[in-house]
# Entry
Amino acid sequence: MQFDIVFEGGGAKGMVFVGALKALESRGHTINRLVGTSAGAITATLLSVGYSADELAQALAEKDSNGEPVFARFMDVPTADDFSRQMRDESATMQLFRKIDIPVIPNRWEDAADRKIISLLLNLKAYPVIFSFVERGGLYVGNAFVEWLQKKLSAKDDGYAGMTLLQLHDATGRDLSVVASDTTGRNLLVLNHRTAPNVPVVWAVRMSMSIPFAWQEVIWQDAWNPYQLLDASGLAVDSELDLTDHTVVDGGVLSNFPINLLTSDEPSARAVMGDTPPDRTKVLGMLIDETLGVPGAPPPPNDSADDRAGVMGDIKKLRLVQRVTRLVETMRGAHDNQLITANKDLICRLPAQTYGTMEFDMSDQRRDKLVAAGKRAMEQHLAGR
# Structure
């Protein structure tokens, strides 16, 4: 059968998708439409350019020259060079400095003095992390991820890494949708060749995986406009939105498992998914279930000393961060729980108990057990379908 698949977001836990896809491939099933959030967006995108389950496994298990998982590099700590002069000038920190009058400095020199102070602070070891967290909403830059994804896309075709969503669709024929959250407009964004034809594929995925407080928010660029919504028929553009300078983060903030995009025939679904009628018999949801144990999995690692130490450790332990994170999890869980209940017969629950969203330095043993559990879960789902 040719399935329309939706992949849930889950960070490093998304490795479980590899096992599920192995089970699909071994039974001769193929893929049609692809929808993904966060880690699911990464998986969906690589599948759209022709990655097999085995190739996915190799890409996600890749190690650097030091034998460390490449994924661990995705947590790239910012430096002063990551913040342009425009970013510094428009920052809340600069606005605060401008409100402070320094008597010994003439007014005409105060702006230059404020810039110098920020530059000096950014050259300290800890301050770029604080600046990134306060001004850009995340501890990590995300450039390492962008470079990795460009490399993986180029491995299939030299041109894929620089393509927009429309160009990739024209080149591959794949119907790929990745989900992100516009926190400025307070809207769920479904990014595909219909709605966001000018958005680069790499940046669509980067927006979708921007877990709040972990990675810096992405600012929508003018060149990516317009964001288009289709009419009730799903055939013609009904409205165009200019999202320039809107802040965009992980799609999981609003919907981590948007299976309704593939099952609903409501105008809201046609507005982003087009006129293809939904066929429930072909829809397959891959849901990461943290309540299901992974047989034989080694115990999870304890927090390292680096995780607990220094400014990074202090920021992660802020009560505000913890409270907002729990609130986001509760909000998106409440929304997705309704969709899960309504479509439970279409969903394969993939075990991920004890695995962490940010466990990008996962050991080989834990990764292998997670993949094996995903494969068994999909085999059981297909047998009962």
DSSP finds 16 helices and twelve strands in the chain. Confidence is low (pLDDT under 50) at residues 304-309. The CA atoms of residues 233 and 275 lie 6 Å apart.
